[in-house]
Design goal:
CATH architecture of the largest domain: 4-Layer Sandwich
Number of helices: 9
Largest sheet: 6 strands, antiparallel
Structural class: alpha+beta
Length: 392
């Protein structure tokens, strides 16, 4: 602070003159003077309290220096302005009273120019440090306000993205083309990388379940693109060609190391033949109630979005009455509890065997509750998608 604004409040014109000469000799020229506290109050109001240091005589008439100090410290803009008390009384009790009410320092009459300059210099350093602190606090407050505003706007956008993502998923229905079924999609965050799709074509039902690597917005964007790309493929007679087209779109839009695991199958409700192609997805299950066995539908290819050539193989399974088809993403077997124990495929199989009489909707809801109890939390640590279909 090169030339601070200094207000001298003293009822002695002589002392005001002496102080002014001392300060001007030290290079301080921005000086203001008041003979009384009342006059100083009017001056400060006129100047909108823009002052840097106050030299305040304790022994003022009417409103004395201590009362003036109390008044000044009640004004927000003057709370942290250094006030140096000018006194002829050096008693400990008297000085304690001034410090208790916010004085920064004191100087005892008579004083020298060196003594006054030293007190002013110390007060200026305090003022500079105080101004810097307030500046940093304001900067931090501005940054936090901007961050909060940005966060709130981002949350609104994510909520909108979540609504859009849920809207492109087909509805969760309990029957499709005569088959009892259930569909469940739970995102770990507001948006997720899991998705599913189904379509009825004459006597056939197309089913797709997919899982984008990663979480959050990047996975959600790629999931949305993949879902819309799959929906745009109208000719699905050749499953490998469907996977090839979907893979090309994902390769066009994926970035970094993001990829998509998919399980695509078609069920003919008349012949009860299931055809499927698994591209890097979890082994999916058919539980054959009549024999108590599990038929695994494992992957034969890399996930989509990694290499150009699709190596999926179309495979066929003859379904029988009582079969239960379980399609899911890895958020189920890889759900962990606080001890970092996984739910695992084995627990899923055990659950399937123990709840064969439940319809698909009740089965799905019961399984979700069971996994949440296992994890001891209400929120999953990964996206979860589950499709259950019973063959009559």
């Amino acid at each position: 602070m090169l030339n601070p604004r200094i207000l001298i409040i003293d009822d002695s014109l002589l002392l005001q003159t002496i102080i002014s000469r001392f300060l001007k000799a030290e290079g301080f020229t921005n000086l203001y003077k008041s003979l009384t506290a009342e006059e100083a109050v009017k001056f400060l109001e006129l100047k909108n309290y823009e002052i840097d240091i106050i030299l305040l005589d304790i022994g003022l008439p009417e409103m004395n220096g201590v009362d003036a100090l109390k008044y000044f410290k009640k004004i927000e803009k003057l709370k942290e302005i250094p006030v140096i008390m000018i006194t002829a009384n050096e008693s400990e009790e008297y000085l304690r009273e001034t410090f208790k009410n916010g004085a920064h320092d004191y100087i005892v009459k008579p004083f020298t120019a060196v003594d006054l300059a030293a007190r002013i210099g110390a007060a200026l350093r305090l003022k500079f440090e105080t101004d810097q602190r307030k500046f940093r606090e304001q900067e931090l407050l501005n940054t936090m306000n901007l961050l909060n505003k940005t966060t709130n706007e981002l949350q609104k956008e994510i909520k909108t993205a979540s609504l859009i993502q849920q809207k492109i998923l087909p509805p969760n229905i309990s029957a499709i083309n005569g088959l009892k079924c259930s569909f469940k999609n739970i995102s770990m965050e507001q948006v997720g990388g899991d998705f599913y799709d189904y379509k009825i074509r004459d006597n056939e039902i197309d089913l797709l379940i997919a899982d984008v690597s990663g979480h959050g917005l990047p996975a959600a964007f790629l999931a949305t693109i993949s879902k819309l790309a799959f929906a745009s493929i109208t000719d699905r007679s050749d499953m490998i060609e469907v996977m090839r087209k979907l893979n090309k779109t994902i390769l066009d839009y994926t970035v970094m190391d993001y990829f998509v695991t998919t399980f695509f199958c078609t069920i003919n409700v008349v012949t009860k033949v299931l055809r499927y192609a698994n591209s890097g997805h979890e082994p999916q299950f058919i539980y054959r109630k009549s024999s108590g066995e599990f038929i695994s539908m494992s992957s034969t290819s890399y996930p989509l979005g990694i290499i150009e050539k699709v190596k999926s193989i179309e495979q066929t399974i003859q379904l029988v009455s009582g079969d239960r088809i379980i399609l899911y993403t890895d958020g189920i077997p890889e759900c962990n509890n606080p001890e970092y124990e996984l739910w695992t495929d084995e627990n899923l199989k055990k659950f399937i065997m123990e709840n064969t009489e439940m319809n698909p909707v009740d089965f799905t809801n019961h399984l979700i509750r069971k996994i949440k109890r296992f994890s001891k939390q209400d929120k999953f640590n990964d996206d979860v998608t589950l499709i259950v279909i019973d063959i009559p």
